Amino acid sequence: MHTRRVRTQSTEEVAFPAVGKFCVVPIGEVAESDLAFARDVVEASFGRETLVCEPLPLQDAYYYPERGQYGANGFLRYAEANAPRGAYRTVAITAQDIFAADLNFLFGMGRCPGKCAVVSTYRFGFYCATPERRMVRFAKLIVHEAGHTFGLLHCRQRLCIMKFAEGYETLDGTKLAMCGRCERSLCAVTALDADERRKDLEEVLKEHGLWEEVGGAEGLAPPPAPADLTPEKSLP
Ligand SMILES: [Zn+2]
Ligand SMILES: [Zn+2]
């Protein structure tokens, strides 16, 4: 983890503890272990102290009974409207199934650029999912959707974490790493150090017993930038 500077807290930080921090906000009931993992992944990937905040209750307004799913756009707006005061970024996590427009389901959605992203854990446990694979899918989606908030678009490099994953095969085929180009964009916006970021991520993955599943050091090594640099398609 990054070494945290010792400093005194401002009045604002005492009154609003999320100020300047990355926040993980559950929408509805979400397993504690998933929230703790999400916090660790966010903290390592984006080099910011990360808080798990009080859950936002599920709201019928975002539910589509004929589909049995919630609207991803609605959840994103809900998370944006209720983000903890002063938060640097917010990643909302839901265990509910979400969809948008003509897509049957979505793994997640991020505002590009923006302050909020939403990730659904509903689908990760399906389709050849060992517990380890489920967690790695979860980590990839968190980084992907939060990546959008820093202005990163979809990437054409099939190994890049910013590749749009419409299904499990694409998702499982990406690395838990950004290609050289996406990584440079992220580091330019956030002033993160790419090597330090990788080291932090390695630590978290080892802690959670996912080092092998992720493919070890090779799994975190950035693939080359794609030959075709135009973004693939727009959101989610
Ligand atoms: Zn990329
Ligand atoms: Zn995306």
Uncertain regions: pLDDT < 50 for 5+ in a row? none
Give me the CATH superfamily.
Collagenase (Catalytic Domain)
How many helices? The count is 8
Calculate Rg over CA atoms: 17 Å
Helix and strand element order: HEHEEEHEEEEEHHHHH
Q: Strands, helices and their partners?
A:
Elements lengths: L10 H5 L6 E6 L4 H15 L3 E3 L10 E2 L4 E3 H10 L7 E6 L3 E3 L2 E4 L1 E3 L5 E5 L10 H19 L18 H6 L6 H11 L3 H14 L8 H5 L16
Parallel strand pairs: 1-2, 1-5, 4-6, 5-9
Antiparallel strand pairs: 3-4, 6-7, 8-9
Bound molecules: zinc ion (2 copies).
Explain what the structure shows.
A hairpin with a 5-residue loop joins strand 8 (108-110) and strand 9 (116-120). The protein is of the alpha/beta class and 236 residues long. The two termini are 30 Å apart. The longest helix has 19 residues, at 131-149. The protein contains 8 helices and 9 strands. The strands form 2 sheets. The chain has a 5-stranded mixed sheet with strand order 2-1-5-9-8, with helices on both faces. Strands 3-4-6-7 form a 4-stranded mixed sheet. It has a single domain, classed as 3-Layer(aba) Sandwich (Collagenase (Catalytic Domain)), CATH 3.40.390. Helix 2 (32-46) crosses helix 4. Bound molecules: zinc ion (2 copies). The site of one zinc ion has 8 residues, from helix 6.
